[in-house]
Amino acid sequence: MSIFSSDALKGEHALVSGATGGIGAATAKVLVEMGAAVTITGRNKEKLQKLADEIQHKHPEAKLCKQTADLRVDADREKLLKTAEQTCGSITLLVNSAGAAGGNTVDKLTREDMEKIMDLNYTSTVLLTQQVYQKMVQLKRGAIVNVSSLSGLRGTYGNTAYAASKFALIGFTHAMAVEAIAHGIRVNAVCPGWVDTKMGQQSVQRKAERSGSSVEALLEASIPSGRMSEPEEIANTIAFLLTDAARNIIGESVKISGGTVLR
Ligand SMILES: NC(=O)c1ccc[n+]([C@@H]2O[C@H](COP(=O)([O-])OP(=O)(O)OC[C@H]3O[C@@H](n4cnc5c(N)ncnc54)[C@H](OP(=O)(O)O)[C@@H]3O)[C@@H](O)[C@H]2O)c1
């Protein structure tokens, strides 16, 4: 269900990372429906092509750019931004949804685990944002949404590396928001609880196994609404934060968790 008009983001160019994943793909679709030109990126070429085909089939008029990139690689980020600008013009909106789960309980956490997670969830996200931001500063406008997590606001079992990377992203969001608004650029974060994507399903499954309960019983016990969020629900929140309707929302960490934070 979209509550946004088809020209809400007309004239904007949104770059969506993690578009081959559940939340990123849903976000790219809603932004296209709102009239934005959209650049989609991920590492998986087939998934990226499938998403592009789906969007173009439904919206033949959509201005769409696709470019594979491993965001940890400097040359890939450069190529991504060059292709995006050449195809759809200056980037005015950025959604940082690329991310990975992983890690271990702190007694088993390795340096390699820590570095791997921080490299993608924090460092690469910051580097991509920096590059896009420089151009936004010249335009004197823009909006950025970082996809953090409830784990970026509170710790959960076996999640030290992931939580640290998502806390770091929140810290980055807050601090950058203060600087960026002086240039007319808004920066916010969303903090989803469990979302019904591959990553969310694996996480719920792991917790159910550890607690010896069924997935259904776990969801019932830990989420007041009794269910995971749909990727579209996260996408709609991101989309709202990118519009002018959210023009005085700056440096926020918006929780979407079916009330998980209340338990
Ligand atoms: N699902 C949840 O329950 C949940 C909850 C809270 C927060 N989040 C956050 O939401 C974001 C999206 O998660 P999701 O549920 O949509 O997960 P997902 O379906 O697993 O998607 C993850 C995305 O990140 C991309 N990615 C991974 N490594 C990359 C790399 N090195 N370079 C470029 N892209 C890379 C993947 O692309 P390829 O597959 O093409 O490599 C994929 O598009 C993540 O930041 C996650 O931490 C998810």
From TrEMBL:
Family named by the database record: Belongs to the short-chain dehydrogenases/reductases (SDR) family.
Protein name, UniProt field: SDR family oxidoreductase
Keyword Oxidoreductase (UniProt): yes
EC number in record: 1.-.-.-
Superkingdom, taxonomy of origin: Bacteria
Short name of any one Pfam family annotated for the protein: adh_short
Species per Swiss-Prot/TrEMBL record: Tigheibacillus halophilus
SUPFAM superfamilies given in the database record: NAD(P)-binding Rossmann-fold domains (SSF51735)
Keywords for this protein: Oxidoreductase
GO molecular function: oxidoreductase activity
Domain Ketoreductase: 12-197
PANTHER family the record matches: 3-OXOACYL-(ACYL-CARRIER-PROTEIN) REDUCTASE, 3-OXOACYL-[ACYL-CARRIER-PROTEIN] REDUCTASE FABG
